[in-house]
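Quick board copy: two proteins, each given as sequence then tokens.
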Amino acid sequence: MENKPQRKRGTLIFWLLFLAIATAISATVLLANQHRNLKHLMRWLGLPLHETMVIPKPGGLEKFRGRRLQGVAVLLDPYVFMHEIKGMESAFLRSMKKDGENLCDLFNRSGFPMSKWQPGTFAKKVNECWYELAIPNAEKPDDPSTFFLMIKGAQDGTLVSTRVKFIFTDAAARAKLTAMAAEVLTDFADATKWTEIADQKNKLLALTPFNSTLSGVSARFSSEFSGSGRYNLIFSRTDLNPAQKRTEDYFEHRHFYPLLPEHGGPAIAAAQPKP
């Protein structure tokens, strides 16, 4: 009988300690992050919440220790302080400065055995590489399915065009040639960082024509009227509008802020005397 009061007293002490520890933990959680959790709880319970705005006291400038760096004078162009001039706006322009030879190597690694990058047969100032595949037609031996890929580029590295032409004469070759054209589309998008054109892949697989133009570059997929099963996928540069032309000139030193003649720039034209 004497153990019962002691047992009750021990149980009471245990629960008091448990409540004290639980209260301390709850208070720590609620008061953390500048009472943020407590405010969330009060809002959830619908209790009125009065927040006090604390205005910091005005302070002085921070004193730096150590050796102060010497100031450097920089000459800024007057254009920096000028307002935008009407009629001189620029526009986003996608660069076609992708080396054609590297693009040929990329398609070669992707499973398209490209020819050597060399001057074209008809235009010596334009380099080209190409790949051609023929798939026999069992029912029509004289009418095989074909796939043709050609890349053209200027000698300065400007990519002129990339063209895919495929013709399927039977249903068996349709899936293979369409998948090859879709792979060219994906590889070209990755190589030129034109990720938006990769969204047209599903249309190509469904043989649905499309024409996408963005910032001076176009991708066009179309069917030929000369017969069924004939399709073309062409990547090329579009004609630039005046705003895009100004953007191109800005990054071309021959047209915008050219170098002085002693540094390889063009000769300075003599001023014309006024009449």
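And the next:
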Amino acid sequence: MTQNHRFVIFDILDNDPTARAMAEGDEAGALRLLVTFAEEHKIRGDVWIAYLCRLLSGTDNVFTRTIEREGSCGPSLERLARSDLAAVATWASSGPAVLAAYEPSTPSGTKTPSSGTSPCGQAYTASLAAMEQALHTGASALYDALVRHLSTLGRGVSARHAALAWSDGLVGVETFDPIDLDQLVGIDTQKRMLVENTERFLRGEGANNVLLFGDSGTGKSSSVKALVNRYCRDGLRLVELTKHQLGELEKVLALLADSRHHYLVFLDDLSFEEGELGYKRLKAALEGKAAVTPANVLFYATSNRRHLIRESWSDRTDSDEEVHLSDTMQEKLSLSDRFGLRVVFPSPSQSTYLAIVESYLERMGIPFTETLRMRALQWELAYNGRSGRTARQFAQSIGRI
């Protein structure tokens, strides 16, 4: 097949070693790669069909980018894409017979990646299953299924994963916390502010970058993760960066700008010490310069500090040499002011702390007796003080969540 067709849009033979091995008749090499793929992804059924569908849906080219952004393309581009897909549909029938009804090894107790059971992962799996069925039907059905996949889920790693990290490119987070907003007790005001801002963002309305600050363990990070779990089906994605990766921020933002998804760039436990300059790049992005920050990106940061850059005593000491002392201090204090929405997470009161404990125990099926109430108060005094994290740790000491 491949000898008679020159791929124009889907240059899979140039960029994919498995497809190239199949095209060149390297059966042993192709089998090795396909079996590895089947085991890693727990593929059941026709491995070659499954591989081709993942290859097509993850390919970055002018057609997949256009469909992801617009939902359709012009007739000339469509004609070229259909020609390539017709060749793929013919090729699909020539897969290795030994892999046509594959059963992967799943040892007892082995868990598949959590991304496959998340709402985002479930939608991805269902869409790929539809593509595989379409490929069995023919080229026209494959084209329609691929367009549906790209226009609803997008392409690449963001199609499967709600949470992403940066490591010389976007990589999926396989074990993302499944926390739900309803599980976070005692922070209703904070949740409402975050939900309203995030929903405006998803609707394309005016939304703000957010700084969540307060004591450790009060639910800041969990709130952001819960937002992503709630809205991932609506196209919300999280990209976690460390402050040490801010030097690559422009590269990250340029990549995100080309996607249909809405991204929260998540900076957890953010603060800067004296002499660190990464805050300047972040500040430029927060100021919304058109060349830096795309419209489908917001920054959500958590910190234990209201002001993100530590002040030194010399900043506050008069000095003849420091002509612009006030300017220096304002420069350091202004970063947090660039977040349009600042949400405070205070330490919970005793009654709220106990309510959080009770909510965890309730999910475990454990009654919150007076004895457990007293033990929870003793735990708070002995370990880390009052916080949602302390409440969770106490519940974990009683039984498994």
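Board note added afterward: The mean pLDDT is 86.
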